[in-house]
Amino acid sequence: MQYFKSDYMEGAHPLILERLSQTNMEKTSGYGTDEYCASARRKIAEACGCPQAEVHFMVGGTQTNATVITAVVRPYEGVIAAVTGHINQHEAGAVEAGGHKVLALPHHEGKLDAAEVDRYVTAFYQDPSWDHMVAPGMVYISHPTEYGTLYTLEELKALSAVCRKHKIPLFLDGARLGYGLAARDTDVTLKDIAALCDIFYIGGTKVGALFGEAVVMPQPGMIRQFDTIIKQRGVLLAKGRLLGLQFDTLFTDGLYVKIARHAIDMAERIVEGLKAYGYTFFIRPQSNQLFVTLENSLFEKLEQRVGFEVWEKRADGTTVVRIATSWATREEDVAELLEELKKK
Amino acid sequence: MQYFKSDYMEGAHPLILERLSQTNMEKTSGYGTDEYCASARRKIAEACGCPQAEVHFMVGGTQTNATVITAVVRPYEGVIAAVTGHINQHEAGAVEAGGHKVLALPHHEGKLDAAEVDRYVTAFYQDPSWDHMVAPGMVYISHPTEYGTLYTLEELKALSAVCRKHKIPLFLDGARLGYGLAARDTDVTLKDIAALCDIFYIGGTKVGALFGEAVVMPQPGMIRQFDTIIKQRGVLLAKGRLLGLQFDTLFTDGLYVKIARHAIDMAERIVEGLKAYGYTFFIRPQSNQLFVTLENSLFEKLEQRVGFEVWEKRADGTTVVRIATSWATREEDVAELLEELKKK
Amino acid sequence: MQYFKSDYMEGAHPLILERLSQTNMEKTSGYGTDEYCASARRKIAEACGCPQAEVHFMVGGTQTNATVITAVVRPYEGVIAAVTGHINQHEAGAVEAGGHKVLALPHHEGKLDAAEVDRYVTAFYQDPSWDHMVAPGMVYISHPTEYGTLYTLEELKALSAVCRKHKIPLFLDGARLGYGLAARDTDVTLKDIAALCDIFYIGGTKVGALFGEAVVMPQPGMIRQFDTIIKQRGVLLAKGRLLGLQFDTLFTDGLYVKIARHAIDMAERIVEGLKAYGYTFFIRPQSNQLFVTLENSLFEKLEQRVGFEVWEKRADGTTVVRIATSWATREEDVAELLEELKKK
Amino acid sequence: MQYFKSDYMEGAHPLILERLSQTNMEKTSGYGTDEYCASARRKIAEACGCPQAEVHFMVGGTQTNATVITAVVRPYEGVIAAVTGHINQHEAGAVEAGGHKVLALPHHEGKLDAAEVDRYVTAFYQDPSWDHMVAPGMVYISHPTEYGTLYTLEELKALSAVCRKHKIPLFLDGARLGYGLAARDTDVTLKDIAALCDIFYIGGTKVGALFGEAVVMPQPGMIRQFDTIIKQRGVLLAKGRLLGLQFDTLFTDGLYVKIARHAIDMAERIVEGLKAYGYTFFIRPQSNQLFVTLENSLFEKLEQRVGFEVWEKRADGTTVVRIATSWATREEDVAELLEELKKK
């Protein structure tokens, strides 16, 4: 049985483990004040085209989302997100536990539409009761989205323009950013993201690291005492160098995008195979997450043999499943998977 | 110009003011430990048909909603409400500020549908990721709703049954409860509410009091240290007797429903008039809030002369306005209002 | 039996009740947007010597403290207070429920010492771990304090200077401010407070009103969207005019200080009597709260006949009781109290 | 220069790194649902003498403290801790950010005194205003404490008895538990802790792991939906097996205590050396943290050469420094350190 349930089922890229082993007995200061973190920060800032950018490391995506939102948004504000956004669905209410409402807007294959955001914010301030309502204080997007889809550069520019027009910071959840950057048909680069977003993060957990997310603020000083806020939320890693070492490795010689491209290659091979076998995609495949629609009868036969994630049971008698590749997916696993799916 | 914008534009019923004057120089202990509060609690419990019920007083609706929800719901739980529910729209994110997500379901003229709630909760626990999601920990309804509509006894029983089946407390926001109880076509009594809900409140602010909401828990002891929680949220009134005196007055000789009925009478008179003049109701009138659809051109003419609340600007070129009567609405005001609306 | 347990045992000054009765059937807009609130704001701002001051009304002291602190202090900051401060002792953890630590410093008859605050803040930033600790983000004082004591103008200036030096806002809890302003030996005026504090409030609940606290920000715009924050915390009164009417009355013809002075007169009469009878004061009497030390045996005899508040059972076999006068204390009650205490 | 600033300056015990490498490319399910976590849980429960114990893994100490406290304590309750407790001093207000007050009691070399806790709780409920105050809802202790000191079995039994008498859960922060268990003069075993505490954790970050804390509830089911609460706080590690693998390794063949004993041995060697050189200990050394009092002039000479942590600048012209050994401290580092300190 092949497991393609998610992109965080393996450990880390071997170069990372090697680096951890080499440096294991070194003594460094804690909490991200070490030289490895400093080096990783410099490399990330450079890759973003913002040498002055401020970079902080956290361990996982949910904590990064909740900490950034809490730190940026004022008490009376909420955060706009697609209804399918991770913060709205699968973070157990972390944003609300931090005191803020998620203002859910319709999604378009997981994406927010800039014009809809603009209309929402405009209408908000036209509502005679707006000052008894939750003001939009941030726009949250993910790239790739929870459906594996990607913003085009034009779409991202439009969202950024709407946010700047209304003076609302744009926050990009890049938990799977590598797979977005490595995608075949994207025209969005890391530098674009740094130019268009106010704050974003580069996901390590799903792209080659044991764990780790690198938060980037292109304009340094955007958040006062951010490290204290991170500490207060309990997510300032004591041995912070573990984060520095991992990101330093990932941002050396373009490793981050290189290993992400492998996942894209494997995903494409699966897409081609499935198309050939006549499978239907629920969402047009764009990165490393593939959403396939199956008749329930077929689903029941397959689920014993193929390790995919059940995404949605639909009223029309079909099941949507997710197949995710990763930096670690082996060619022989893909071959075996296709073999299994061929049998249907 | 006649003001029908809301049902909290006047002071209090004269008997209440009289009572406050009579007792003004008495000395009593604070925070609701006085004899007037005790008497009001007894009368309310009796009116609810639950002599053992526990009754607490607060000052306003938003604070009551937020305090009850915080006190009842566990950290990982949220509260189901209609998307139009007051807690989801017009309380500035008070529930989220207390740490909990509002789980918004579709509304049906402002009401939740029991079958939909059942399906939602059932589907929630079937979702493979449910333990990373916000669990439904309470069902919130308002009666009358924000649209002035009323649950039938059958609907309320169905909701209560769903809640009990899933062991989720049912909380009824009765900020306008008097107008619901006094409505012409309702079959829901206060005793029904006490039998079917786990916690609810009887609104005073909008029904004859200067301010005040009486929270009723038919099963005493449902919330440990509720007064301390009320104090912590800053909403335990120092001179608590002001609340006791008001509710004691309202629950003497059926004053509460009696004065609410007057609002219903006045509303009916307006409904008849408007129907005769050919106006269209956006929602079928059921209690003291009337929602009228106006062509924008007509709206613009009227808004200078008639004090209603703009509810919604619709894409079809109409405006929905709200006209609210209250215990204090005078017959001559109604006559004058109808006169104005006749002129269109 | 005479009750001197607290200064919030009666209703309101008769002029206030009269005013509420006169205006009872008027219709006004809600939430403090009415003309009575506007008038009260103007009068208060003028009395503060700051015509431009921003004034907001809330219902009670705990909610005012918690709301102001939440609105002003950043997520990683706490609030400095005397260990005896109301927010540290008797508000059921409202400040912490809002997410902030109370940084308790030693008290001096209920007061903070400016030099100690200065040393605390200076030492804080010298601590090598300061960025893992709760930063001082506000200084909270009460005037009169919980012990009825008063800051001298010199002390208040010193505190203000320390706060400004460290760029920390100074917040004065004036729940009993009237009694402080009316005290015999004070050199602190309302204008001094407005000049030296960044935000403060003028207490109505304990000084003649049914309820109500007026928050004053000498520099308008200090808090963005403060009314929305007040709404979110559930403490924006629907019939806001009740607050406007009360403060408008209290700030017409100097009523506020005039009625407070009566409490001071009554307190002085009690002080003189008790001194003549040989009683000992635990704290030098300065305003309307008197703290008397009694041998336990004497206390047990008296407590059946005299309605004071038990403040503290001390290890040395004495009990400290509090006697509070108010604007409503009658001369005959004082006479009777002294008669009772004479008998010991 | 030798660094003895803290016990989290190195990576992980080599066996852990080896295990991570061996299993790196395995695919496992996430969030702690894998077999390595299951195995680690079994071994920990067995080591605690509670086969039925519930075990959860988190990444760091602050997040564990804040998450456990939030999950256990009711909204109106706070947590008793020594004034020197980590949650009261060095977690940036994480407990308060979660809504709860830390009720700080005096410390005795970092420890709480059972009789004082008993008196505090008893006095609390005797205070006439107790229901307007923060109720003690948990007792937090650390073992070893922030001063490296240890509870005796008798002391721990006394605290446990007080907690059970008052029905208050006892929570033990074992961030450095290994060093406590391995100490020379302790009579407290892991089984004692499991028998006497309601919830506690076994620290990995400071005792051989890259990161990780194992929370143990001897009575399973103590907290409903604890994993969801952990997820909500953003501290449920995606690749949970990293925690399972580390604790499985540490709890195989007694590795955890074995490596901790090395730190104790190294600490003892330093203690003996320092005593011989005439240094004075601020606190009697008991585990792996040593607190040495230095004249400021001596301190200034040494700080260039010796990497200790500045603990406290005292008014008497001395500086207290901390020297911490760890599982990773090398004998030659100790020798070099002693050499440096000899020179004074």
From TrEMBL, chains A, B, C, D:
Domain Aromatic amino acid beta-eliminating lyase/threonine aldolase stretches: 6-295
Q: Cross-referenced Pfam families, in alphabetical order?
A: Beta_elim_lyase (PF01212)
Question: Per its UniProt record, what SUPFAM superfamilies does this chain match?
Answer: PLP-dependent transferases (SSF53383)
Keywords associated with the record:
Pyridoxal phosphate
Q: Which domain of life is it from?
A: Bacteria
The cofactor required is: pyridoxal 5'-phosphate
InterPro entries named among the record's database cross-references: ArAA_b-elim_lyase/Thr_aldolase, PyrdxlP-dep_Trfase, PyrdxlP-dep_Trfase_major, PyrdxlP-dep_Trfase_small
Q: Carries keyword Zinc?
A: no
How far does the signal peptide extend, from start to end residue?
A: none
Keyword Cell cycle, does the record have it? no
> Do you know which PANTHER family this protein is assigned to?
L-THREONINE ALDOLASE-RELATED, LOW SPECIFICITY L-THREONINE ALDOLASE
**Protein family membership:** Belongs to the threonine aldolase family.
Instruction: Give the protein's recorded name.
Output: Low specificity L-threonine aldolase
